[in-house]
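Record type: monomer structure entry
Structure origin: computed from sequence
Chain ID: A
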Amino acid sequence: MFGFLLFVFGLVEAIVSGNPRIRWFAATSLGLTITLLSRPVLQYVVLGVLALMAAAYAAWRIGALKDTAPHVKVIFRRATYALLLALVLPLLVIAKNGIYFGSWSIGTGAGAGLYYGVHPLHMGEEPYYTNFQYDVGHTASTINPATRGNLEIEADRWQKQIAVHMITQTSFLDNLRFFASKARAWLLYSPVENHFDPEWREKRQLQVILLCAGIGLLCQTALFRGRRAVVEIFEQLIPAPHARSGSCPVAWTPSDQAKGMIFCCVALVLLTGGMIAQFLPILYNARYNGAFLDPLFVILGSVALAMLTRHVRLLFAGNEAGQGNLRNLRKWPRAAGQIAFLVLLLFVHRAAGDWALRHERLSLDPHRLGPAAVVLNGDAFGPARVSGMEARGDNRWVTRDYLSELAIQVNIPRGLSLSRESVYEAIWRVRLQMRGDIPSACRDVAVSYSQPDSPTSTLPPRVFLSRDGEMHSYALSAGQSMRPRESGELIFKFTCPAGIEIHWGGAELLRSTLAEASRELVLHGSAFSPYQPHEPRLPDKKQP
């Protein structure tokens, strides 16, 4: 984070202040070098920026960009040199790795990031969030038992190959939904984090709302009052001259400084969007979100808040005599309007947060779990035991009490081991139907197993049921407290009002075979499908 903040601070300070001193560009170059060598998350963004700067330079040379101030050219030229200088050491590291190790990259790890980032069982997020394991080492050792770790160069290449194959074998619409959910996570933090640490989501959501409101204000101003009015808004944000230290070697008018602020804000918005786009195919984790996106959203959200409260600020700003303007009645209506608008934004923020807590979940796609094999089919599931429900026949019950329970008997054949050594990753797939006037709390169903391999799970196992009245399949991890140690009961606990109809449609226990399928892909080029075409079913009824 230090290198990234140093990079952003140096560029913003040089551009906004109009003070192209070497120290700001040196800070920019040093910060970018540190960032690229520690976490090469800006490598593609930097290449895109350099391409845009080359296009701008070419436009200047042919005269397409006229009336450009010499001072702006100095900033542009020094910024270009700073970016190029920042690439020298990373390029030397890449050359060294390519010559000595045959890997033309700064380091390994990108393959694991891509592997986890598109892994259907993990939903592209930390396996911690779905109670699965970090299986990339297991996959690499399955491909070649001599592999000493997933960070080996050869293993890194395998992981990239597997990730690309999973993307290409997934339909366009499923990829679209999958990466849209990841974009939401990068933008607003993961739904899982929203439930166990909602402060992260609350802060980011408020920043996003302020940013959207600020962009809307600028678009409205430009549309109805012209571009000059947009510059005037930023001029009102410039601090008083005595509040700044140092002096600018070149005359930098408030209008020039406001245009510099506009340029920096647009650049930071594009940088934020570019980083989110670059993060989409890699593993989502809160560390990257907090270290690389939080600083950008804090800056942009603060600027947006300053724009939305500029009339309130002007009421309390000092005039030439050092006195406030509280008696200026002409400014009160606009200030009151801005305060009312901010109160409205707070209501929107609260409503959006409440909606997210009720409706947003990180749920597995029961029909796209990666290659898997059936361990227990429908015949292993016996009769149901219910509590707080009344039977309606044909595996249907109606809730009577607010707290009710449905427990399905699970019969594990003698000699079948479901331990981690035998079944590395296991998945429960169940079919349930819910009908009635269903509140949000009723949809969130806690799941447990009566004879688990482990007493606890990282996060409480749950399924989030649909309330469209149709039978649906649902999937969740069968690891930790959901991994069967022996025959027992699969238990669903409902918090529903009386009169909700629950229909049980069957279940199965799957074993992920991604490691074996990846071995066949890498060694023999055999493609695999991430889809499960069949559905869990009820046990076959025995004929009398």
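Annotation 1: The chain has 18 helices and eleven strands.
Annotation 2: The longest helix spans residues 198-225.
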